Amino acid sequence: MKNGISKLAFLLFFTTLTFQANAQTAGEGSTYLYTALIAVVAILILGAVLQVADSLMRIEAKNMGMEQDNTNFSLFPAWSDVFKPKTPDFAQNDRVVNLQAGHDIHLEGGAKKEFLNFTPTTFAVKPTDFVGMSPIPKVEVEVGSEVKAGDVLLFDKKRPDVKYVAPVSGEVVAVNRGEKRSIAEVVILADKEQTNFRSYNIPDLSASREALVEFLLGSGVWPMIRQRPYDIVADPLDFPKAIFVSTFDTAPNAPDLNFVVAGKEAAFQKGLEVLGKLTEGKVHLGLNAGAESAPAAAFTQATGVEKTYYSGPHPAGNVGIQIHHTNPISANERVWTVGVQDLITIGKLFLEGRYDAERIVAVTGAELENTGYVKTYIGANLENMVKGNLKNDHVRVVSGDVLSGKAVPTNGHIGFYDDQVTVLEEGDEYEMFGWLLPLSPRPTISKTYPNFLFPNYKFTPNTNTHGEKRAFVVTGQYEKVLPMDLYPQQLMKAILVNDYERMEGLGIYELSEEDVALCEFVCTSKQPVQSILRQGLDMMREQG
């Protein structure tokens, strides 16, 4: 590097002498030209020196771990700082992260802020909802057993200390199996009134961390705490460097968590206090700076946490994006995450002494006659949510949002971590020349469609992918919708060829399926990006 700068200096000196000699025999206009050329060369050399110094400063800051607070360690201001949007009044006293990459998908069928009549009969705990669980866990109950809310149903033989419990009281009516005799779900026929709860001896928060962890494991709320990397149930033997809670969701037609948390402020705050005892680092609370009004008081007035506001399109509400811009994960580090409603359950356990798995679920989709919210419990049966509420029967029911949710039967059960149900039209009808003659509006980032002229237009989607899997070409589309300092397309290719070193170097530890869901949506090559990422995460986890 020093030799290169020396050569540039010598070249400038030689050029100056040559220009000076020529200037003696040339006119005044040529002298001005030579002077201008010398100035340009000098500016280029100065720019190169500053750029090298800037890069060295960034590298040193990263090696010292000083980039974790997202400070701009640079000689030059970032473009996002120069052209950042105006900070809303309610976020003036807190840190605000403005994200540019991403894409909002506006769909018909958002949940109205009203509660629908819904009386589920069965609830299920599904081992497939928990990444990495052995396909045949140890089931502690039999068909016909009576259980209380909070009683142990099953546990993973590889991690017997983590208990998975009944979300409701009632009778175990089925232990359904899947392929190769794997356990698909344990189904409970719920009591008409939920008054039968397992009793606990609640420890004081002044107890040791070990005692708190042991209680959380035995009570059944531990699976609500997830770990990055890998997005698995947290390992109780780990010490996370931080814990993250996102208080808003930017996915299509996602539930409004300000509406969900109303009336549960005390339980939410208590849950935050419990999390604070599980880490020596900070508990980070991600709040929405892109809304017209301030977040709920439960979020803005939370104590004992580090608040950060985020603005920008989806996936700004994803906890993985917030981790990346606040306290990124390296190979040997662990970060835990907890959802808002999971945190409320943990808080109620300490406040009321019972396992209350109540969930407020957003029922969404353009194929429904009525949308809104339902009060239910974890693992509720979906049949009564959509039965008699469909515009037609040719639909697909998704537990979750349209980007990262899972298709389930109409009589199936909602996922353990899901608080949204989406119903959309089954897109199995062939559209002649659909790629050439776009006859109907559809959500896309392609300029082939005039969507960019109508940014707030709401689409009526179906499940048609408008194409099939093609050659995996580099397009640069992924980077436009993933607000992370990563190269997602190169990462996916490294996964496909089992290049472990490149996977690690390209940042696989920071990602989960929901973070790359938009990449799959915009992918010209129609690659199953989320499945590819899970394949890579599983490979890295197995390698230890």
Please provide a brief summary of the model.
With 544 residues, the protein is α/β, with parallel strands linked by helices. It is 30% helix and 17% strand.
Descriptive keywords:
544 residues, 17% strand, single chain, seven-stranded mixed β-sheet
- Sheet having the most strands: 7 strands, mixed
Count every beta strand, where a strand is a DSSP E run of 2 or more residues. Answer: 19
Estimate the mean pLDDT confidence.
88
* Shape designation: globular
- What oligomerization state is this entry in? single chain
- The rounded Rg comes to 27 Å
Percentage of residues in DSSP E strands: 15-25%
Taking pLDDT < 50 over at least 5 consecutive residues as the criterion, the unreliable ranges are none
Helical element count? 15
Indicate the structural class.
alpha/beta
**Terminal Cα separation, in Å?**
38 Å
Q: Identify the strand order in the major beta sheet.
A: 1-13-12-11-14-9-10
CATH class of the domain at 89-106 and 200-353: Alpha Beta
Description:
- This protein has 544 residues and is an alpha/beta fold.
- Among the domains are: 2-69; 89-106 and 200-353, Rossmann fold (3-Layer(aba) Sandwich), CATH 3.40.50; 465-544, no CATH class.
- The chain contains 15 helices and 19 strands.
- The strands form four sheets. Strands 1-13-12-11-14-9-10 form a seven-stranded mixed beta sheet.
- β17 and β18 form a beta hairpin.
- The radius of gyration is 27 Å and the shape is globular.
